[in-house]
Design goal:
Order of helices and strands: HEHEHEHEHHEHEHHEHEEEEH
Low-confidence stretches: none
Largest sheet: 5 strands, antiparallel
Shape: globular
Radius of gyration: 20 Å
Strand content: 15-25%
Number of strands: 11
Helix content: 40-55%
Strand order of the largest sheet: 7-11-8-9-10
């Protein structure tokens, strides 16, 4: 979203961003806002269950000055957006919005395993069902993170998608480096929203979504000269290790560390990957506010216990409370 917003802003267009999750306190909202982008948040459920909130959020961004581009990202486990969001937008607010293509960002860490039908991917078939339905619904499938996979893996992933979804427009890119961003932007300009409502088994959908427990939390760590970057990374690494030891698959872990005017973001996108700093700050602070967003194939109570234990361990390691 930040990459696209920067591109359209440079063209003189006014861009509005809408984030979405099952609870308040989103790392993405704070990171985008801190980067200077106009952003509004829909919390508590996906856009499909909070349609009016989505419309209100978009409207709030256009107060005073109209929005040229609105970019909205729903909860990562959501699907059936054509029927529940795009069609209602067209019918109820068609004079205000021209709907662009529905883009699904494909994460290679999980996508390749699920498309291969590989055993032991960390998700049940019901969770994988949601992933495949998301791809089925897309107008554009964007294979992200090509900087992290080999050319052979990229080719295999593209071929797996072409075999299963032959009518889809597929773009490979790295939003970290910007490689291929021009291809995505060209696709956004030339591909229309034409995907149809899904034929979906809502019992399977509900079971798959329920499997992926989520936790949004905040904590304050107090000490002396605490390095935001290392603190955020240590928390993600420690929590990730605890989950991996219990063979619990992480869909995503995101930690935002804020203090003394700076902020850092660390994340983990798969239990088999290493944690990393996605937005460094190089800032130290005696008081650090942490925002934690976690989506894990685990019981929420287990996820909460691991998070609290990881927080205590990291604080102790930094002689902090």
């Amino acid at each position: 979203m930040a990459r696209l917003a920067s591109h359209y802003t440079a063209l003189g267009q006014r861009v509005g961003l809408v984030t979405n999750d099952q609870a308040e306190g989103l790392v993405d909202t704070r990171a985008l806002s801190s980067a200077g982008f106009p952003v509004s948040e829909v919390a508590g459920a996906c856009f499909c269950c909070k349609f009016n909130d989505l419309v209100d959020a978009a409207g709030s961004l256009a107060v005073g000055t109209p929005i040229d581009r609105l970019l909205a990202e729903p909860v990562g486990s959501c699907t059936d957006l054509v029927a529940t969001v795009l069609e209602p937008l067209k019918k109820l607010h068609g004079t205000q919005y021209r709907i662009g293509p529905l883009i699904v960002l494909l994460k290679p860490e999980h996508g390749q395993k699920i498309l291969r039908g590989q055993a032991g991917v960390g998700f049940s078939p019901k969770a994988a069902y949601i992933f495949l339905k998301q791809l089925e619904e897309a107008d554009i499938i964007a294979i992200n993170k090509i900087d992290k996979i080999s050319p052979a893996d990229q080719q295999e992933l593209t071929e797996l998608l072409e075999q299963r979804f032959p009518q889809k427009h597929i773009v490979a890119l790295s939003l970290r480096t910007g490689d291929g961003l021009d291809r995505l932007i060209a696709a956004m300009e030339n591909v229309t929203q034409s995907s149809l409502p899904l034929d979906i088994d809502y019992d399977t959908y509900a079971d798959g979504e329920a499997e992926m427990g989520w936790l949004n939390a905040e904590a304050v760590v107090e000490g002396t000269g605490l390095p935001l970057d290392r603190l955020a990374l240590a928390l993600v690494e420690t929590l990730g290790d605890r989950l991996q030891n219990d063979q619990l698959e992480a869909v995503h872990l995101k930690v935002l560390a804020e203090g003394d005017g700076g902020f850092a973001v660390a994340n983990l996108v798969s239990s088999s990957d290493a944690a990393e700093i996605s937005l460094p700050s190089q800032t130290d602070s005696d008081t650090v506010k942490l925002t934690i967003n976690a989506r894990v194939a685990a019981d929420p109570a287990v996820l909460s216990a691991h998070t609290e234990a990881a927080l205590a361990e990291v604080a102790a390691a930094h002689s902090a409370e």
